[in-house]
Amino acid sequence: MKLIKLIPLLIGTMLLLLSAQPLFLMGQEMIIGSRVNRDFTFEHIYVNFMKLGKVEILGRGAPIPVDRISVENYIADGNDNKAIHTIEEYTDMNRRDDATRLTYTRVYKWEGQTIEIADQFQSGVFNESSREQANLQMTINHKDWSVEGPVLVRPNFLDDNRYHGYFGIMTVEEKGIEKFVVIQRISGTAFTPDKNLSWRILSVNSDGQVEEDRFTFDELGEVPQRVNMINLTSTSPSAVGYQSDILLGWPSLIFPLAYPYGTALVGLIFVVIGLVIGFRTFRE
Q: What's the rounded Cα separation, in Å, for the pair 115 and 138?
């Protein structure tokens, strides 16, 4: 008879144990995310959207112009490096029949620092599906910071879509100090499991000093702000978590409502009922 009275307590304990791991992982992600967002301010920098030379950050549903950063666009045919000011100029220079290799250069200027990004592509008529594989050439204050590791270039675009999934720019502020940050995926363009992905982050100080941080997927969570930078700039095939991906899926009635929230709540109720029954039995 006494064993029967323990059944609610046993069921509740089993349900709580079953729910413990996902609840721990979810809590861990929330706590780390809260700390990172408390200590850092991240602003993803968008450029050339609809109009060359525009620099914006994404506000609450609408872009906000940025005046502390400027961007210039150039296209080169051999040694002829020409500034382009409209998307139509870019398109007209590309429409040629000689299959010439062209170089597109984007120049960011921030706090007296100059960051240049360049790629080579073949002239022709493009559409939104056009892709070319190329190495990004990168200089910071005229010092070469290029690395081997091709990216997919979308020559039809001059905004963030040009290097989508491989390259992004942002500013990061910590303790009132702002840095210009470049994020680049350097593990190549071939389809690969997440464990084979790798990135580098270049942080530029207002005095011109540059810090480079290279890491693999397995090392990603060692510095939690890396996760925010990669997710905000979309420099990964899919979103990444701090220690797990448990919060990255779309919520449904089954997960996390039924499990682990529902099972944990039911388990807690059964444990309380079991403890009340046990207390009363002890008093008798």
A: 7
Question: What stretch of H or E contains 218?
Answer: none
> What is the CB neighbour count within 10 angstroms for residue 65?
9
Contact predicate 217/194, CB 8 Å: yes
Tokens representing residue 250 in the block: 């779309």
pLDDT tens-digit series, residues 119-173: 999 888 788 899 999 999 999 999 999 998 899 999 999 999 999 999 999 999 9
The dihedral of CA 213, 214, 216, 218: what is its sign?
negative
Q: Going by DSSP bridges, is the β-strand pair 151-153/198-204 parallel, antiparallel, or unpaired? A: unpaired
Query: 248 is written with which tokens?
Result: 């990255």
Q: Order across the sheet with 143-144: list the strands.
A: 80-83, 69-77, 101-110, 113-122, 137-140, 143-144
The Cα–Cα gap between 170 and 226 comes to 12
Give the separation between CA 118 and CA 145, rounded to whole angstroms.
Answer: 12
Geometric angle at alpha carbon 187, from 145 and 114, rounded to 5°? 25
CB contact at 8 A, 198 and 185: yes
pLDDT in tens, 71-81: 999 999 877 78
Give backbone dihedrals phi and psi of 242, rounded to 5 degrees, phi first. -70, -55
pTM of the complete model: 0.89
Kindly give the interhelix angle for 7-39 and 263-283, rounded to the nearest 10 degrees: 130
C-alpha–C-alpha distance, residues 8 and 11, integer Å: 5
Whether residue 280 is predicted with pLDDT greater than 80 in this model: the reply is no
What are 49-107's pLDDT values in tens digits? 989 999 999 876 788 999 999 999 999 987 778 999 999 999 888 876 666 889 999 99
159: helix, strand or coil = coil
